[in-house]
Amino acid sequence: MPKVKHHEGIRRNSSAGRITQAYVTLLTVIMIVMALATMTVVGVHLVHNKREDATQMMTVLKKSFSNYKPDWDYWRDTAPINVHSTFVRVSVTHKSGDSVYFYSHNAKKFLRNNWNQWPLLKNIQYQPDHGLYYHISDRAEYQGPLSIRYEVWMSLNNVIQLFKIIMSVIIMVTIAGLFIGSWLIGLVAKRLNVPLVSLTEASKQVTRRNHAPYTDGLPVPEGPLEVHDLAVEFNKLLDSLNRQLERDHQFVSDASHELRTPLAAIRGHIELLQRHSLDHPEIVPTSLATISDESRKMQALIESLLQLSRMDQAELELSPFNLTELAATVAQRYQEQLHQNLVMTGDGNPIMAIGNPDSVEQILLALLANAGKYSPADSTITVNVRVSAGHAKVSVLDQGSGISDADKEKIFARFYRVDESRSKKIPGTGLGLAIVTRLAGLNNGTVTVRDNQPQGSIFTLSLELDQQPETTA
């Protein structure tokens, strides 16, 4: 039983269930309002007609009065409506106070059965044995010692019967509309929810794969538009998760590979020392130097990994700073560490950028170090600061062997090395450009690479400009 109640609650809380409930509520309210409005309009109209009929009846009744008594035959022949459900009493009062009463057919019995009538509204009276009646009275004074009072009771039972018929019809139409409409609305709602249900089932299939990569996208229905847009956004999210998952897997694989090499070297030399250091003491300095060198590589790699990990949740405080002055200072300090000639160029005007000066300095140092490693010793490295396309840009131009178009999109990935055979001769962890990319993102900037002419590469850091007019590069 609890499971049944649970499933019933789920159905009621579904879109189809809520649409059906809303339809039932709306239809019920509409039918009640329509019933009240119809009964009110019809009732007022019928009572108005009864009032007019009673007024005409009273006029005919007065005309039928002759010789100090009513002429019932004349009244029945000239009355505008059926007189069988209408009762009349005429009282003639003499000056002496004596009264004579005249009754239409069955009127005396009608009034005697229940004299104590229950007034409901003005001119409307109720009798338990006969129902509702519209009552009208009038008085006429004649010359002489006569005072005549005319009273007419007209049945409203036909009006009540009409009300009952209207109410019955409204109730039947409402019940039929509720049953048929609820069934049809349920079918339509379920049909409209088919794309959403399919999307939900596809999402469940994705989430059931606990350890599998999210490679499959969700089906994108043609409509409704909201479900279509939701599926598109879900697929964008899944695509982002796929890329992130692939990057994480590749990162773990690359990190394991990079750490395995120095660890193997360290362990090999330790085993060599354990076996042969006593018999061959001359190998000790060489092995210790190798262990020290490999441990420094591991330390640098681990520090770079920790730096990348910290930057995933880092936020930098950005402020305006002089990019031209910062680039000149970095170039001057780093010149001593380069074998190449370092040249500073620009348009001569100070360029103000928005960013974090310390992290921008770190980016420039990494780009200069990268240019120094992959450029000939007798070449020139150029640092150019300029304003272009509404941004403050600083570029590092080298005259190295350059980067192929296929590698330009990959060099900013973690552990990616352009030439593996050449990379073994050039020190580095393969994380420098990945760190540069992350730091540029934290500064709301970008790092791009393009070919230098006639040879080499140009790495460009683009930052937000601090209210500087745009100039031609």
From TrEMBL:
Residues 190-246 form the HAMP domain. Coiled coil: none annotated. Its EC number is 2.7.13.3. The keyword Cell division does not apply. CDD domains: HisKA (cd00082). Keywords: Kinase, Membrane, Phosphoprotein, Transferase, Transmembrane, Transmembrane helix, Two-component regulatory system. InterPro entries: HAMP_dom, HATPase_C_sf, HATPase_dom, His_kinase_dom, HisK_dim/P_dom, HisK_dim/P_sf, Sig_transdc_His_kin-like_C, TCS_sensor_his_kinase. Residues 254-467 form the Histidine kinase domain. It is an enzyme of class 2 (transferase). The chain crosses the membrane at residues 21-47, 165-189. It holds the Pfam family HATPase_c. GO terms for molecular function: kinase activity. The keyword Kinase applies. It catalyses: ATP + protein L-histidine = ADP + protein N-phospho-L-histidine. It is found in: Membrane. PANTHER family: SENSOR HISTIDINE KINASE TRCS (PTHR45436:SF5), SENSOR HISTIDINE KINASE YKOH (PTHR45436). This is histidine kinase. It comes from Lacticaseibacillus pabuli.
